[in-house]
Input
Amino acid sequence: MKNIVNGIVLLFLLTFVSSCVDKDFDEPPIGGTDPAGVAANTTIAQLKTYYAGSGTVTKIPDGVIIAGIVVSSDETGNFYKELVIQDATGGILIRVDRSSTYVLMPVGRRIFVICTGLYISDYGSMIQIGVKGSGGVDRIPALLIDQHLLRGQWGQPVPLRTIQDINNIDLINDQNTLIRIDSVYFDPADVCATWADASTSATNRTLKDKVGLLGNVILVRSSSFATFAANLIPGGTGSIVGIYQNYGTTKQFRIRDLKDVIGFPTSTCGPPAGPTITIAGLRALYTGVTGTPIPSGMIIKGVVISDKDNSNITAKNVVIQDATGGIVVRFTSNNTFSKGNEVIIDVSGKVFTDFNGLLEADQVGNSSAFLLQNNVPVTPRVATLADINANANTWESTLVKILGVTISGGGTYSGTTTLNDGTGTLPMFSYSTSSFATTAYPVTPVTVTGIVSDFNGAQLNMRSSADVQP
Output
């Protein structure tokens, strides 16, 4: 009998220990309780009626209590020291001087807000509450947060509205509410770009729906501090969940993490397999009418011969050259390519532009260009000025070297100077903002290297002061 009892006890202990080992104590039980003796007496929509207009700071009457479900999360860093809660009537942003709020106030937890001592105002027409600030509302100090924000039950149903038409989002009434938009796609110029650029605090990407012929538009705004900032924007069509906000009349959307991006096709976001046309072949497609669309499937590869670092080229432009010719590619925003970069660029569906005689592949999304390798040399064509003048259209946007040249003009490289090698003359232009603009040019014959260009007639563009040698 003693052995039987001991066996039963042992079995009980093993079962108890096993159940303790299997249980994940990091996961809080679902439910919890709301704070005793506290109840909301005002809806979020009613709270917003205390807002007196753009730029005004209004004290919320004492005794006002609202309650809402947390719909934001700062776990990935795309929300910072702000909490968004929502009830059946709307949503509101609360400014708090505390990070990692997702630990105690995760998505789905009910929060009661004691508004006594708080103020309501706006930032760019987006209504928010906090303590009184000099020009709006400031963050609730960390020591006062637990007095104003009382934590209730967690695991509550999260309000979510699903739409297909971006225009159905109301600029004011839908502020700080969680919305899912179906059948949307990112602008092709943003596909395969990062969610946020490291050089700025936040970046907007353009999201469109398929309701309108041209697509209704909303901006997806992501912080450069978000953990997903360096991830790439997907192509194709899918759904996106986020908190709707606005700045003035501009509609904006903020996701919490990449789980809010649903159903988009997997995209490699890598460079295409190879060029499908030479640069000379691409130039030959231009019919002479500016704005002519570039056919689909047009991929070019070449080496960057322009030099953005010395600022003698527009920041959106890059000049590339292959064995057959050269062309200016104009991106939709400032590019990051340096002289000597070998790049491959998909110019499909973009347009040809004649800019004062200079042919450009225009409206190219930055994400359509890929760096292949660095420090690739390009040997300039040695030519006389007479040769260049005779072949200016064919040699446009390629690198040339002229020997025994004299330079005349205003004494420095800034603006237009004149080159003369005894066979002819050619204007050379340098921006007044270039790094070498105020440098005095030599008065003795020199060797000049530059890019054949056009501004209502042939001209040469040097890249740096190193392009002029004794």
About this structure: Helices lie at 2-22, 44-48, 142-148, 279-284, 385-390, 392-395.
